[in-house]
Each structure stands twice: as C-alpha cells, then as structure tokens.
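step: validate -> pass
step: tokenize input -> pass
step: predict -> running
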Amino acid sequence: MTANGLYEQKVLILDFGSQYTQLIARRVREARVYCEIHPFNMPIAQVRAFSPRGIILSGGPASIYDNDAPMADRKILDLGVPILGICYGMQYLTHQLGGVVAKAAEREYGNALLTIRDDRDLFRGMEKEAAHTVWMSHGDRIERMPEGFEVLADSKNSPVAAMGDPSRRFFGVQFHPEVAHTPDGALILKNFLFTICRCDPTWTMASFIQATIRKLRDEIGPNRVICGLSGGVDSSVTAVLLHRAIGNQLSCILVDNGLLRKDEAREVMELFQEHYGMDFHLVDASEHFLRHLKGVVDPERKRKVIGREFITVFEKKAKELGKVEYLA
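step: predict -> pass
step: emit ->
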C-alpha cells in the first residue's frame, strides 16, 4: 500500500542501486517528512499518481555510460517538482539535461573537503568559502554542467561537487549527504525538503500507523483476512496493523516446517495468540516437510521443495477456515 490519499506531502526516492538508499529514506523520515523508495524505472504514470512534493535520485554503482546503465523515465524532469540527484543521481541528471559526465582522473572514495561557493538554497546555514567534510564514492565526475546550472560547491578532485538550477529547482551533489561521514548531511537534506520542496515537518510514525489503520478499515470493510505469519518483522507488523484495524476478522496461520529454531513456533504463538489476542492457527507440518526433503542435497532444490510444500499446507489450512476474501 502506498501513501496515495494518506499524505499530501511526500517525497519519492528513486533507487539506482545504492547501498545507502535506505539511509536516504531514514534521514528524510527523521526530518518528519513521509517518503517511499521505488525502483529507478518506476513508470511515469505511477510517479504522477504518487504526486511527490520532491524527488531524490539515489546513487548507484553503475557508470552513466554503461550499456546497461539504469535510466529513469526522462519525463520525471518535466513534472515541475524539485529534484535532488545524489552521486549517480547527479550524473543521471547531468546526462539527461545535456551536460557531460566523464571518468575522473582520480577516483574519490572516503572523506573529502567540500568548499561551498553558494550558501543559498541547498547549503543554507553552512559557511561559504569554508571547508566541510563530506563522504565521496565515485569514479565519474561532471565535466560540463547542463545549461542553466551553476557550481554550488567543489572539492580537490571534483570541480563540480554540487550544482543547481534554482529556476527549475534541480540540484545535484557528488557526495553522500545521507551518511554519518557527512556531518552536515542532515542539514543539506532538510534544506532540500523544507526550503526547496517546501515540505512541513509534520509526519510521524504514529500518524502513519493511524492513517494505515483507517485505510485498511476502508479497504477491507466487513470481510475476512488470512495472514501468513512467520514471526519475522514484515509479517508481524502486517498482522499487528491488520488486527488493530479489523480485530477478529483476521486469522493468522503459522506453518511449522520443522526447520525453525528451537521453540520458535511456540514463542510466536504465545506472542500473537496470548499477548495480542489474535485468531492464531499453528500448523505443525514438520514431518510433512522433512519427508519431502529426504535425500535432497542441492540447496536450490531444497528451497523449491520448501516453497512448494508451504503453499500446499497453507492452502489446505486456509480452506478449513471458510470463506476469506483477502490474503495478507
């Protein structure tokens, strides 16, 4: 479920494969702005439907000139919303807008000193012409900026370490503001969120939970839901949110395949049945799974056997519970 209809102010993060993408989302949410991560090739119709207040393009391991370099739909540049490109995201922005990206003579990786040349907008509140520590991780650099852009900051090996086109509200940074190694990174991201995107710091996890519960109630109505529960984070959060929304309309099924940790199935049952008071069904299918796995050595074959038999056992139990309209 996305935030459509839940939040008017939200930021879209397009993921180009960076190891830091989740950190970008964390920093945005710490600033109390709602955001979602989606793949770089998110269809433009979905981007429009999401109606972001701003878009952040993540970094990534590719070079913009690789044959299989990830490319977002260029139409995101025509939406009229602010865009911040980080590392590869900055290079994508440059390439799409007619600038030139080239291999750097020396790869930058690790701490670097950034000199700010323009302390408006993105670098508001930071000292101009002073050195600021940032975290770099790139092998390409901007050789020529697109038309309308100006240099906002530079470093020893990056003449264009940050650039911006304030009229279109397009910005790019060659470093990573989302990591702890960039001490002023949170301020830079807040400047993008509040000064450039004009978001308000109103989002909280509590508001997200309440909005999600309302959305679930509206969607499900009087119908019943079955949740496949493993005890892991994803299914546990799903089950608790559903239970808060629809109460005893929810039934949870845990399939014990005999490969769980000692007493894990019992502990999960005690938590969700006794503590949360859910309609909980534990299916002990240990012998069933072990019988089908007997003699299977190849790990990939084991995975397929477990997946296939899980569906068989789960569907059988679900049918016993009667008519159910939704599966979670």
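step: describe -> The chain has a mean pLDDT of 93.
step: cleanup -> pass
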